[in-house]
Amino acid sequence: MGVSDLQTFLESSNLEGGAVSVDLLKIARSVTQRQQPHNTNRKIRPIGNKLKLIVDAENCLDRLYGGFFSGNNVI
């Protein structure tokens, strides 16, 4: 499955909730809070599941730079 097929699948009605907005700062804070020991005598607990993030880099560049990288730049 290519990236475009994955995007089509995630955005389709076949998979409800496949593409949702998230607050990465909130997620990072909750992960670090879970890693901190509640008792100072304990060591930091490792988290079994690592956070994985898929980013559409081309779309991010387009948004960050106002279309410059997608050919929409006006001279």
Structure description:
By secondary structure, the chain is mainly α. The protein contains three helices and no strands. It has helices at residues 3-11, 24-35, 57-64. The radius of gyration is 19 Å and the shape is elongated. The protein starts with a helix and ends in an 11-residue tail after the last helix. The mean pLDDT is 70.
Short description:
The chain has 75 residues and is mostly helical.
Topology:
Blueprint: H1 3-11, H2 24-35, H3 57-64
| Residue-averaged pLDDT | 70
Structural shape: elongated
Q: Approximately what portion of the residues adopt beta-strand conformation?
A: under 5%
Rg calculated over all Cα atoms: 19 Å
Record field, number of beta strands: 0
> Structural class given helices, strands, pairing?
mainly alpha
**Terminus-to-terminus distance:** 38 Å
Percent range of helical residues: 25-40%
**Helix-strand string:** HHH
**Helix count?**
3
List the uncertain runs. Answer: none
